[in-house]
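Notebook B, p. 112. Complex prediction, attempt 2.
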Amino acid sequence: MSPRPTPPDVDRAAASRAAIAARRARAEIKRQVASRERAAADVATVGWVDADSPEAGMRVRELLLSVPSLGPTRVERVLTQLEISDKKRVGGLGPRQRERLYDYLVARQGGDSARLVVLAGPTAVGKGTVSSYIRDHHPEVSLSVSATTRKPRPGEVDGVHYYFVSDAEFDRMIAAGELLEWAVVHNSHRYGTPRPPIDAAIAEGRRVLLEIDLQGARQVRAAMPEALLIFLLPPTWEELVRRLTGRGTEDTEEQQRRLETARIELAAQDEFDAKVVNREVSQAAREVVELMDAPFRAP
Ligand code: 5GP
């Protein structure tokens, strides 16, 4: 067999120019979907009508990832559910796959906005500050008040910041099934989310925000898959280190332990539907509230 001829340089240059243009066009489509200028279902439809379009050349995975509030973990799940392989491009889908993808995207467009939103993130990233800001500036959002077995700090009000309960009362709440989730945080006290106020707020059409730790976020995902999980990130790793160690009140061993915990916690970010960087509290709070308003909700 004769070796495959090498294409002349001019052809290669033209092909590479075309590849760059196609990549740019796909990036622009992703931007439009992410900013809600275009619906993902419309992008897919164009790809099916015109097999040479940049829409047809997009991977389904890329298209789904550009939908606001669809994170990598959920995209993996959706692809499995739709029986579409990871590498498939929009134009390469079979008729049944097209139908399933289209129905899924349309269902999400028509879906309600997230009713239950979980804000989690590594220690010292500023979850508490962001959720307090939301409590003070966004009265339309209900903040869940957790129960805890730890003692109140100065200025903390029972029923506002936490329900401060005894160990026996916490045991009772678990046994009565009153907690949506609960966890031992920082190896010391128990914290849990009372379920009845959440059910009541959702029934009234209100949106509820839970500021809880990672273990709690995972339990909420399992109990209520329709919840939107947001991960709060520090601007940089260095900044998180500064916030963790800056207080200077812990010895070196304790600081090392906290840094190790933060590293493990940061590794969980891809389990989340959306990420918000906490550069500035009011901006991060606004982004969280905007995500709560995103119209794309369906498991
Ligand atoms: P703090 O004692 O400083 O108020 O809170 C300590 C940690 O407990 C924070 O990381 C906070 O996110 C977490 N936390 C507060 N309430 C709950 C809850 O109801 N469930 C879980 N799992 N964690 C919580």
